[in-house]
Write a structure and sequence with these properties.
Elements: H1 2-5, H2 14-21, H3 25-38, H4 59-69, H5 79-88, H6 96-105
Length: about 130
């Protein structure tokens, strides 16, 4: 494909070059359009800066939500159940997605209930009928 993106000799058309290399002409046009459209990459100074959102929870609020989710009353419940239980009590701390984000930042995502580890079952476990 890179051969076709270079300047072709005057006597050779794109159609003949594509036929000789068994390349679809639409593919060539698409590649040429992309190469012309993209341009050089933007310098690092134009990239988005990592800034904290204006409505983000501060450190004390984050700790309050995390300690509530890890309390004995809520340690076995998923964030959605905690959220709706707190709403029933008339309390709003943060959204469900924020609860998930906080748990993920503390590597506590996944199953929150204490469960027995799965036991492997073998076909020949020694039991007889």
């Amino acid at each position: 494909m890179s051969l076709l993106q270079q300047d072709l000799p005057v006597h050779l058309s794109q159609r003949k070059a594509c036929d000789a290399l068994a390349v679809c002409r639409n593919t060539l046009r698409n590649q040429l359009h992309r190469a012309a459209f993209c341009g050089p990459p933007k310098p690092l100074s134009h990239r988005r800066k990592a800034t904290q959102q204006a409505r983000a929870l501060d450190l004390a609020e984050r700790q309050k939500v995390l300690s509530l989710m890890n309390s004995d009353a809520y340690c076995n419940q998923p964030p959605a159940e905690i959220y709706y239980d707190l709403l029933d009590q008339g309390r709003y701390l943060c959204s469900i997605s924020t609860m998930h984000r906080l748990l993920r930042s503390e590597n506590q995502q996944g199953e929150r209930r204490q469960q027995r580890p799965s036991r492997s079952t073998h076909a020949g476990s020694g039991t007889t009928l």
